[in-house]
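tool=predict chain=A
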Amino acid sequence: MKRIFVSGIGTEIGKTFCSAIIVEALKADYWKPVQAGELDDLDSLWVRDFISNNESKFHSETYLLSSAMSPHAAARLDNIEMKLDDFKVPDTNNTLIIEGAGGLMVPLNHKGDMIVDLIPKVADETILISQNYLGSINHTLLSVELMKSRGIPIKGIIFNGERNQETEDIILSVTGLKCLGKVPMVDSKLKEFIKEQADQMRENLL
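tool=predict ok
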């Protein structure tokens, strides 16, 4: 079983959207260990509803936190203390896509455990989602540098949203990482779009 962690250079940059594309491309299983807020509209349900294959399975979250805020703060409001040892990888023989919460340095508790500390415990490699905005070069390079310093294998980068060739070129040149895909903006027919992007990205993901 291959276990791939999907992280991002920040929050609200398309991790769930890109995770759906990856799940569809590989007909993989999906697991989001921590869901903070929006418990009536889970990310796992969103991915399930917008993929087209019938092979992917969706595994239960380890923590469902009621407030849409940093996991460590949301957990405290729910009188929960998250511990790294509590995260058990779901039992599956399929490729497993694991979606993180926010970026790499998002705290899980008040003891200093971060998302980046969780990755080696549950995944074999990471896909980083980047989005073009002023400052995204810095955020992307810092994210890559952090993972490299921790010895976390990086499969590659997916650029999501509005294109900026100069930004993409410098990121790939400095990091030496592979571009797995460039996902354009979309506002309709999401299910068809996700399948189309999955078909285009599949070879790079294998």
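The chain has one domain: 3-205. Helices lie at 15-26, 43-50, 71-77, 115-122, 136-149, 165-175, 190-205.
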